[in-house]
Specification:
Number of strands: 29
Distance between the termini: 75 Å
CATH architecture of the domain at 14-123: Sandwich
Number of helices: 10
Low-confidence stretches: none
Mean pLDDT: 96
Shape: globular
Structural class: alpha/beta
Helix content: 10-25%
Strand order of the largest sheet: 19-18-17-13-12-11-21-20
């Protein structure tokens, strides 16, 4: 080497532990538009040199970076943030260099080091916050002998909107197969007038891009979507990638399905369930590319008809790489599309689906009932790295799950689970009308509704005594009016002296919105105890009176200090949802 040649020495700065990140950058973190991404990193250098540390960020695909200074927090920890203003992906990284002199120009970047580039997926607000209402359109009428139409179902939309929901979610609306059609209560042999399960997709009238004739036509569906928009509702469709034996694809593309050794197509199984009326696709067949493209085109068909939310049925039974490809391909064209994973499966699989691109995920909330269970589970969802990529959507019931807690607890149990779902989760849902009517009729020893809408048309008396529509409306109004309930990350649990009482709060970072929730988890007995609040975290003085107003009853109380007495009787009100204001 020529002695006169200048070779820069190795860089001295170390950048470690840039966060948030998921799997060292293999997958993006998730945020919604309008949020600020807060980034931390450990940055240090040998000796006592001062450092310049910058947070770089840009829209993915842009050539130039934007930069903002990061501030030191002590012990070599640095913090910075930037606003998320566009849908899609943004990139971010940390760059740092030593300052030769404390007063040196900060753009002298000799010896600069840059961290690996990380990504954040920016979705629209509905990905973070929304109230979902699931309904079977065929049960929206007044005649139990026939399916209601989509136009009749549209007449129910004002009621859904009046209760304060944001999304109306429909089970599959496609033609229903006849072969091995299921009868009432999942009977293996259907009666001549049984309508079958909507998840047995495909018949002579068409497949995944057609509408069940009993519901109407594509024009009727378009009218339903328009009617929903007129009531400020968004339509979510069920995306079930499976076929009845009568689906046109079974005859046209038999190579897309699993076959037995004798050459016949194998019916679907999702242990412990077996579905004689359904065929699953073979995602690893020799024709996998054509199959994948066809399924992607199904999604695009409905997206182009105005559907921007898809609830995906059993995604855990399809390859992860398929979902990663499909979701990316759809969102490349339509970045506002939301995918909800209906996957009641093992935790690692649920997490992987979220990493692969699913916008939201079902959860184990349905099976978490005790104080210890709820605290442990929601601490995991909101205070660990899981929160960076898995957005929970808390359904209080589903057509498949009427939990024993609801069956035994009756009306008070429905009220309790409603308040928990709607305040623990920024996104939550109910399956109605059974939920707001507090329907408890189940097949003995199971979580299955008796006379389930999955297999038959039901007519509901939506005004029957004992319904909780008013409470649903109040809860949804509270969610819309109080921004603290529209986020999950700032959920905090609080000490209360009885295991049947659960207390928690949500706040905005500036404490402009603070909501305190106290729930009696016992639907049968009144419960009381001392509540212990970290009043500094709520922006309250140590010995200053403050008002708590119940958003459910409008009752007002003046409290002082961190320790206050609460009593909740499920016969009258099993929960408080307090807005907290300094006195």
């Amino acid at each position: 080497m020529d002695a006169t040649t200048h070779v820069a020495p190795p860089p001295r700065v170390v950048i470690e532990n840039v966060r948030p990140r998921v799997d060292d950058g293999r997958h993006p973190v998730k945020r919604s538009i309008g949020e600020t991404l807060e980034v931390h990193a450990d940055v240090f250098v040998d000796g006592h040199a001062a450092l310049a540390v910058m947070l770089r960020h840009r829209v993915a695909g842009a050539s130039d970076w934007n930069e903002t200074s990061m501030e030191p927090l002590g012990n070599d920890l640095w913090r910075g943030d930037f606003a998320l203003e566009r849908l899609g992906f943004c990139e971010y990284a940390v760059v740092a260099w030593p300052l030769r002199e404390r007063e040196a120009m900060r753009d002298d970047r000799e010896g600069a080091v840059e961290s690996p580039v990380l990504r954040v997926r920016v979705d629209r607000e509905r990905a973070r916050f929304g109230a979902w209402y699931e309904m079977f359109p065929r049960s929206a009428g007044d005649d139990p002998t026939r399916s209601a139409t989509l136009r009749e179902a549209a007449a129910r939309l004002p009621d859904v909107a009046a209760m304060g929901f944001d999304v109306v979610y429909l089970p599959p609306i496609h033609p229903i197969g006849v072969t091995h059609r299921k009868g009432a209560n999942n009977a293996l042999v259907a009666a001549p007038d049984d309508p079958g399960s909507p998840w047995a997709i495909g018949a002579a009238a068409g497949g995944h891009t057609a509408v069940e004739p009993a519901l109407g036509t594509l024009a009727d569906f378009d009218a339903f979507v328009m009617a929903a928009r007129a009531h400020r509702l968004e339509v979510a469709l069920d995306l079930a990638f499976q076929c009845s034996p009568d689906h046109p694809w079974v005859r046209k593309y038999p190579e897309w399905f699993h076959h037995r050794s004798d050459g016949t197509i194998r019916c679907a199984e999702n242990p412990p369930h077996k579905f004689e009326d359904i065929y699953f696709f073979d995602f690893e067949s020799a024709a996998w590319r054509a199959l994948w493209d066809a399924l992607r085109d199904v999604v695009l068909f409905w997206v182009e008809r105005g559907v921007r939310i898809l609830r995906v049925d059993n995604p855990h039974t399809k390859p992860f790489r398929f979902w990663e490809w499909l979701i990316a391909d759809v969102q490349r064209l339509h970045p506002d599309v939301i995918f909800l994973a209906e996957a009641f499966t093992r935790p690692k699989i649920m997490r992987q689906l979220s990493k692969c691109g699913f916008t939201q995920s079902y959860t184990y909330f349905t099976w978490r009932h005790t104080k210890a269970e709820l605290v442990e589970y929601f601490t995991e969802l909101t205070q660990t790295d899981v929160r960076e990529y898995l957005r929970p959507n808390l359904f209080a019931n589903t057509p498949d799950v009427l939990h024993d807690y609801l069956q035994r607890g009756g009306r008070a149990a429905f009220q309790i689970r409603l308040v928990l779902a709607a305040t623990l989760g920024a996104s939550y849902g109910i399956y109605g009308p059974p939920f707001e009517l507090c329907e408890v009729d189940a097949i003995r020893g199971t979580e299955e509704y008796r006379n389930s809408e999955k297999y038959q048309v039901r007519v509901w008396d939506r005004d029957r005594p004992g319904n909780i529509r008013d409470l649903v409306t109040r809860v949804n109004r509270a969610r819309r009016e109080h921004r603290a309930l529209q986020f999950d990350h700032r959920l905090r649990f609080h000490e209360v002296d009885d295991e049947r009482l659960l207390a928690y709060s949500k706040t905005t970072p500036d404490l402009a919105s603070a909501v305190l929730v106290i729930v009696n988890l016992d639907p049968d007995r009144a419960t009381e105890g001392w509540l212990h609040l970290p009043i500094d975290e709520l922006g309250l003085g140590a010995d200053v009176p403050y008002e708590v107003r119940d958003l459910l009853s409008d009752a007002r109380y003046v409290w002082r200090g961190p320790r206050n007495w609460v009593r909740l009787d499920p016969a009258t009100a099993p929960a408080h949802v307090f807005v907290v204001r300094a006195g």
